[in-house]
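[INFO] parsing input record for Actin-related protein 5
[DEBUG] input buffer:
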Amino acid sequence: MDDVLVLKDYKTIPDIVHEYAPSLKFGHIPLVIDNGSYQCRVGWSIYDEPYLTFKNLIARPRKDRCKKDADPPVTPPIQIGNDIVNIEAVRFQLKTQFDKNIVTHFEVQEQVCDYIFSHLGIDSEGHVPHPIVMTEAFVTPNYSRQLMSELLFEAYGIPAVSYGVDSLFSFYRNGIGDTALIVNCGYHTIHFIPVLKGKVVAERARRINLGGSEIISYMHKLLQLKYPVHVNAITMSRIEEILHEHCSIALDYQEEIRKWANPDYYEANVKRVQLPFVQSSSSSTLTAEQQKERKKEMARRLLEINARKREERLLEDEEQLNQLLALQELIEDGETDEFNEAIKAFDIKNYGDLQRQIANLNVRIEKNKQRIAAAANAEEVVETRPAGRYQPPNDPEAFQVWLEETRAKYREVSARREARRARRAAMAKRRTAAAAERMRAISRLAAAGDDFGYRDSDWDVYKSISREADSDSEADGERLVELEEALREYEPAQPSQYHHQLHLAIEPIRAPELMFQPSMMGNLEAGLAETMEYVFKHFSEEDQLLLANNVFLTGGCSQFPGLKERLERELLEMRPFQSSHKVVMAKNPNLDAWYGARDFAGSNDFEDWCISKEEYYEMGGEYLKEHHASNRYYKSPAPLIDNTLTPAGDANVVKEEIVVDC
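[DEBUG] output buffer:
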């Protein structure tokens, strides 16, 4: 599979402030708010689509301590929804008003409401003159609803509000009857809500504490454990993109896992996702094969330069040897006077010195000839290196040891060459320690007697005063070439785009499988199929058949490809032999809740189902008017007072009521 998937890294676009038209301002138009735990959708009931759709999050970026209080802030002190352009930059400062799917942090909810009303352009003085339809979670606690009503009526002065369950709005929006088992796959929870003949059987509904948030977190951990080198690049936003575009539900999870054990199946079906990678400018236009050829060509050129230098040095040595041999012939022919005159020009002291120089030249010429012969096959040497002592072992652990040793040798030889160059540079300068050492060596050489040369160590003085140290430098140069070739051949390549790719094999089906197997992430609750079967068992066979023939899927997580087919298979396994069943998908799982609430706000009976401001003050904040898409209203019981906890010393205290005349 050659296709590489490129992450789009979507950036949010800040919402505009919409025009508050006179038809809205004076028309008493209801405002519809789908207050979801993942996204909030807001719009007017007379329009087809919501005006605002944003993530239900706020961020408080940290204050720059280097700036003074009087300086204007670079970023807003609070960012809400689509104003958070780069969410990863403020990931640890994000806040939400939800605890799971219940609103509990109303200071955050108030800021979200400010954002909603300001971006809708509502500019009325001191209040929001529009009734509101707001979604809430199934079986929302009275206390949470009380605080929400208090916020809307007291802080914003709305005339009326009506609450409804998002999944029920979606169900009635799709118009698939009045009996169904609603499966609402949300961001934090999955609800199973049985509806019989238009009536919600709340006491037999069930919830799984797992949703899109847990699936994203699980996928995030899987990929970070698989690719620890790219922990920082594997962000939650990118995981969301992968989850939305590349994940699916397996029809048979175990069978799919077995398929991935086959290497051929892996290569044919793996999804490669490219992470952001900035390629170095030197190698950005060259492929890996071209870079390899370029390195080989550079090695060839280096060998050719060294070979040319050896040939030039060989010619010089041969010419000098011929001259010294000519001097030797003079002494052999008995021409002593001419010999004595000639050796002065060559700076030779006597005949013994001449013999030593001839012997040294012969040795040097022979070595150069051997090196030239060895370098004649430069092409073959480049192609076949490293060999011999630079041939790596086959064992992986031994290979790592060999690689470290080769790197150490390369550093050692490089350091030696650099030290030699520094020494030569120091010798060229007067009044340095290196120059003084060289002068002392020359003085010892000048003071040496005629017995100089009988010991091999005597000749080291020439090496110590030589500025070039040709033989050592050449040997180190050749060794460096060999070491470079060995490292180039066997050292791991530099990071490239291939090293910044994620291979998605079983992960795209493993993460969504949490919906059916929560135990994979350590959750002890039952999965989607088991919970559905449990709900069925609480009804008669006739009602079970009615519910099984209309299993309604809604919510963001219901959009996973393959979920409908998987549920149909699970129903086939759990239902009696030859019994019928049917799974129905919402037309638009993301927006059907808002569409349903919009239709509800436009109905003729809408005002009868609203809680007015007068009813709020009379009945209390937790009061709820029931309708076909609402929760059931259960009045909170009065608090119990335990008189047994009264202190003994208060037994004779007389309690009186104090009436305050206002």
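[INFO] Confidence is low (pLDDT under 50) at residues 381-388, 653-662.
[INFO] shutting down worker
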